[in-house]
Sequence to fold (325 residues):
Amino acid sequence: GVIAIHGGAGSDITPENLSPQRKADYLQGLVTALRAGHARLQNGDSALDAIESAVRQMENDPVFNAGRGASLALNGNAELDASIMDGATRTAGAVTGVTRVKNPITLARAVMERSPYVMLTGPGADEFAIDQNLERVDNSYFLTPGRLAQLEQIRALGGGPINTATIPYHPSDHPTKDVEKHGTVGAVARDRSGSLAAATSTGGMAGKRYGRVGDSPIIGAGTFAENATCAVSTTGHGEFFIRWAVASDVAARMRYGAISLDRAASDIVLKDLQAVGAEGGLIALDSKGNAALPFNTPGMYRGVVTESGDIYIGIFDTMMNAKDL
Ligand code: ASP
Fold:
């Protein structure tokens, strides 16, 4: 089996911004999540099991913007979004604005497998977690000192996200004092039987308005999987990723254009999204297990375990073998 993961892309992910300690935390977090997912594949479990395990691991790791350590909404709450899709059956599950379930990705999977729906939102989704006996926590569980400080910084600069959801827009329009608000986690896998699956989980944009939903829980925008083409999980400026239907567009370009995964994914991220100033990236696997991990920001936390079991991780342009960590 093959698995790839991301821990978010952002314009703030630069060598200067990343202290040696934080860099080590991210790399370690990626390796631990990759191992968790890959162990499932080795065990003969499904691609779905593998991506759920990897994403749960990153949700539990406070360094990533998902689960514990998620970015906070302007009102100070963690409001979490997650989605998952099975490429074999094209079934999918998603939750938005949940505040009490420890692992939103597991709730999204429960929506897929144990409800007749694809998407549940807010209090209804949190209540479904009770019905399903999923582990619940107080919202304060998700809060970390770093995210509270980030929110204070955003509030001090005068409120929530600037409105960049209009075109024309270019990154240089960002006020220079703008603080980074992005991050997300995701995983894609191909199991022994050749099935693909994708999952994405996030706290969303830091300082977001209460109720704002990004691309991460939206099937076709943040997450997509179908065995015939590819599995995709995205990260970046969600408003653009929704309007460009990024995740399903990778599959559509492969299907209708008969082009490779690498070509489809990099054309979207490096040409189309780049051209409108939409920052971000994605991870994807095709039906043969080839990986593509394009991003148009200075960095994207990412990693892959190859068929031969080698673990590669990276933040900036190059990836390295985890053996050399
Ligand atoms: N895509 C996420 C959102 O818009 C954030 C991110 O990936 O940086 O909620």
About this structure: The helical segments are 20-42, 47-60, 104-114, 122-131, 145-156, 238-243, 246-257, 261-275. The chain is about 30% helix and 25% strand. The two ends are 23 Å apart (CA to CA).
